[in-house]
From TrEMBL:
The chain crosses the membrane at residues 25-46, 71-94, 106-129. It holds the Pfam family Sdh_cyt. This is Succinate dehydrogenase hydrophobic membrane anchor subunit. Its main location: membrane. CDD domains: SQR_TypeA_SdhD_like.
Amino acid sequence: MSTVAAPRSPIAAPRRKGPNLEKWGWIYMRASGVLLVVLIFGHLFINLMTGEGIHQIDFAFVAGKFATPFWQWWDVIMLWLALIHGANGMRTVVNDYVTHNGARRVLVWALWLAAAFLILLGTLVVFTFDPCIGVTQDSSLWEMCQSVAG
């Protein structure tokens, strides 16, 4: 009877001090994925299944949702979680397939800068949205904006 030789132990890289960012990234992906499922299906249900369904979605519907702090925060949380989740997933792909250290570093920085820019822009849009900016007398929103303003 033959025995199998003991496997060679891999050379372990020395453990760096500080937080294990890969572990926390892995945990974030799982937690944000679960939260995103709830947020996205809630978003789709409210927008597509209640009221008149897809026929109700227009500028006034969005303006009405963004006038409520609950929906503002719902959409901002969904935006932040989705963009960070997506950027972290893309970072993992870049780390797996880009072998040149310099190129990998540039791509990862570009991913996080793009995600940060979109988070900033999206958050500003949600919290500073004003449907009455630029409304003229020809617009169907004119009466509504006049009653709110005066």
